[in-house]
Amino acid sequence: MKAAQFDYVKPKTLSEALDLLVETGDDARLMAGGQTLLATLNMRLSEPSILIDITGITELKGISVQGESLRIGALVTHTEIEDSDLVAKHAPLLKLAVPHIAHRAIRNLGTWGGSLAYGDPAAEWPACSITLQATMIIRGPSGERRIGAEDFFIDLYTTSLEPDEILVATEIPIASKDQISYFNELARRHGDYAVAGIAAVAKKSGDVLRDCVFTFFSVGATPVVATKAQALIDGQELNDQLIKEAVEIARSEIEAIADLTNSAEAKQHLIGVLLERCLKDMLAQK
Amino acid sequence: MELNGEQLIAAPIPDVWRGLNDIDVLAKSIPGCEEISRVSPEEIHAKVMFKIGPVRARFSGKLLLSDVIPEQACSMAFEGSGGAAGFAKGRSRVELKLVDGGTLVSYTTEASIGGKLGQIGGRLISASAKKIADDFFQKFAKELGGEVIPLQSAPED
Question: How is domain A7-53 classified at the architecture level of CATH?
Fold first, then answer.
């Protein structure tokens, strides 16, 4: 199928794009990589009257280190993250996650900011941004505001972004030397949406993990953090018994939502499977 | 797809029942409701704009009430068509019960969704339906001048 008719504009600056958004309101859609939006248009599941192509705006591009943070521009593609030495060094979790995102052709065009602003519960970046305690930098008509990733994702496909705002970049605290990461997702085929996934970091000394964050995705309307399991693991000598207890706790503290092919029980089970693999992997990591 | 749930609304049963049967209250409570009219005591027609994520689909449909026991329960059959997006069809049973603090509304719904929405949206239809139901009850309770009281553990599928 082909999309219905729409107007197309490509502003050169962020302020131009913001003005256009205010002018056109809900009839407009921002387009970055277009990897979700264009499919929806072609399926005629959405018929906006105007597309604002933001890919020409340089303020939204680039990966850089700024003080104690790694700044990733909203227009950075998945492939750029995959190939970035700065990301590998300062946010290694993202490097582990990229290969799980769809397929090469999609990774070449799809963007970091697009994935975050879209807020798909099965997507990798929202979960990673929560795990890494990223800060979203948002620009609107009244200026810039910042919000933590844990408060940014509100509900299914719903973020704290207002219709007249644009996600500009995110800042991620640079990983400490003792930080270890783990990322995994279970899908029927590689590149499919995950049935369930985990994005985790912890600081490790000996067999003890501290400051751990275990974020599960594709199990609820937004990514969910297993706070009780984290509290149990934190500061304790990690062993098989503790792993078993953490798995039990994670399964009971997270309420999974079923989809058409996987029941809530199946997802609940997979939460435990993922956490067990994560903790065993972390225990083996140097 | 199945969607079952319970909502506790801080309002007496007669008010909740009247609200559920008042198309003006429904018009204000149904997320994205653009038009609603009662064709006969048992039949309601409506136009609803669903907005979830990138999807904007306008559904027009009808609702048929049956097995109505005033202030206790009713069943409804519904079907709607969203043009190119697809269609939805199903049955729902709603029951009201007097409890401490207000009225407990329980509902069981069975629906099938077809067309493109079903093919590519299937992964998230349960979560979307739950979000729409939650939004509805929040607005509905507000219309009645009450509020939704969170249940300890809301049963869901």
Answer: 2-Layer Sandwich (3.30)
Nearest CA-CA distance, residue B126 and chain A, Å: 6
Task: Provide the 10 A C-beta neighbour count for residue B23.
Answer: 15
The SS3 assignment for A150 reads helix
Of A77-81, B40-44, B79-83, B132-136, the range with the highest mean pLDDT is A77-81
With an 8 Å Cβ cutoff, is A221 touching chain B? yes
B49 touches chain A (CB under 8 A): no
Q: What is the pLDDT of residues A169-203, one digit of tens each?
A: 999 999 999 999 999 999 998 888 899 999 999 99
Three-state SS string across A180-236, please?
EEEEEEECCCCCCCCCEEEEEEEEEECCEEEEEEEEEECCCCCCEECHHHHHHHCCC
Contact A259 B123 (CB under 8 A): yes
Q: Please tell me which residue of chain B has the smallest CA distance to A35.
A: B54
* C-alpha span between A247 and A250 (Å, rounded): 5
Global ipTM: 0.72
Beta-carbon contacts of residue A1 (< 8 Å; ≥ 6 apart): A42, A43, A44, B84
Cβ–Cβ under 8 Å, residues A110 and A57: no
Domain A63-173 sits in CATH at 3.30.465.10
Domain coordinates of chain B in residue numbers? 2-149
How near does any CA of chain A get to the CA of B147, in Å? 20
The whole-number pLDDT of residue A72 equals 98
Chain B touched by A40 (CB under 8 Å): yes
Q: How far apart are CA A21 and CA A53, in angstroms?
A: 11
Which among A46, A118, A257 has the least Cβ separation from residue B127? A257
Query: Of the CATH numbers 3.40.50.300, 3.30.390.50, 3.30.200.20, 3.40.630.30, which one belongs to the domain with range A179-284?
Result: 3.30.390.50
Judging by DSSP bridges, how do beta strands B102-114 and B2-9 pair with one another?
A: antiparallel
Q: What is the pLDDT of residue B154?
A: 45
| A193 vs B: CB within 8 A | yes
- Looking at residue A258, its pLDDT comes to 84
